[in-house]
Design brief:
Chain lengths: ~160, ~190
């Protein structure tokens, strides 16, 4: 068996990243439930995990699946696994304290997703490209354009 | 921002939310039968103690000097990597240890999961567990009680590798000459 660290260390090291990602994907109201579902599912699968070299990527992948499950349950169209759900910012007031994320939600789709994945999900550009179905360079460009636009709007 | 120096993006999206979620995780994991090892850290007169329990009982007590992180890593390897901090599951053990250190308890009434030891070592520890409060024994006496009178050195090894010190009082075992044996908690324990 590969040597897996105690599961608590995954919660300690990656819990905040997973929560930020879920807030961006499903909104603050539902993020807590999705977070718990994510970590319970991860805990169930954990002893069978072969490699411990990208635990954050593994957790964020599970979080995406839980976010998609949530969107399906909420009656949105079922999404093919390669696609990503729209960010549910129906409850804008939940984001008011986080004006920056509200501004992110206003970005054009590609930029919004690239920025969210990069800064909330903490994914590499190669991973983002794989998720968005574009090249690493295109993912980098989208994130850069999104960040530039936020800067122009006064965010730093 | 590219190098993630911008604080706002890295902030906890909801201060306090994460702590609540982490707290609730252990309960959900236990309800799903996924909490293989629960742990807690408690203060004591001999320093911070790490307490670990499986559903079968207390499986490990570790002194600060052993390095709690290292102990948890070994447990992840030897018992299960499904290890979560879950203080509520160790309330009973923590309370009995508190009473013991306050002088209000002489014996522990706790289920022990012996899986980190076995065979002769376990017999020696069982004999040690039966020592009364304040009583002492020699390694030879314990080896005899465990059924192998000549295995004095092995009895010493059993105590040196006691997974549940204090609860199994290895600190009451003396060398043949009556001096305190070396053991994992150091003489101050």
């Amino acid at each position: 068996m590969s040597e897996l660290p105690p599961f608590q260390s995954l919660v300690d090291e990656h819990g905040a990243v997973v929560l930020r990602l879920l807030v961006a994907l499903v909104g603050r109201q539902e993020a807590g439930d999705c977070w718990q579902e994510t970590f319970v599912a991860a805990l169930a699968a954990y002893p069978r995990l072969r490699r411990a070299d990208n635990l954050r990527g593994w957790l964020t992948t599970i979080a995406y699946r839980k976010a998609m499950d949530h969107h399906r349950r909420a009656g949105r169209r079922a999404l093919p696994s390669a696609a990503l759900p729209e960010i549910a910012v129906t409850d804008r007031s939940a984001l008011d304290g986080e004006g920056l994320w509200a501004a992110v939600a206003e970005l054009p789709e590609k930029q919004r997703l690239a920025v969210t994945h990069r800064y909330a999900g903490d994914l590499s550009y190669a991973e983002i490209g794989a998720r968005l179905g574009c090249s690493e360079a295109a993912a980098r460009r989208s994130a850069f354009e999104g960040i530039s636009r936020l800067r122009r709007e006064g965010w730093s | 921002m590219n190098d993630r120096e911008d604080g706002r993006l890295d902030d906890d999206p909801e201060p306090g939310a994460l702590a609540r979620l982490r707290g609730g995780l252990a309960d959900r994991a236990a309800a799903a039968g996924l909490l293989d090892v629960a742990y807690a850290t408690v203060d004591s007169p001999v320093g911070a103690l790490l307490l670990c329990a499986t559903p079968a009982g207390l499986v490990r007590v570790a002194y600060d000097g052993e390095g709690h992180d290292r102990v948890l890593e070994r447990i992840a390897d030897r018992v299960s990597p499904r290890v979560l901090e879950a203080p509520a599951r160790l309330d009973g053990a923590a309370r009995q240890l508190g009473e013991y250190f306050a002088g209000r308890r002489r014996r522990f009434d706790l289920a022990v999961d012996w899986r980190l030891t076995g065979g002769f070592r376990r017999e020696v520890l069982a004999a040690t567990a039966n020592l009364g409060y304040g009583a002492t024994a020699s390694y030879g006496q314990l080896a005899t009680a465990a059924g192998r009178a000549r295995a004095v050195r092995a009895a010493g090894t059993a105590l040196a590798t006691n997974p549940v010190p204090i609860v199994v009082p290895c600190h009451r075992v003396l060398r043949g000459d009556g001096s305190l044996g070396g053991f994992v908690g150091g003489p101050e324990a």
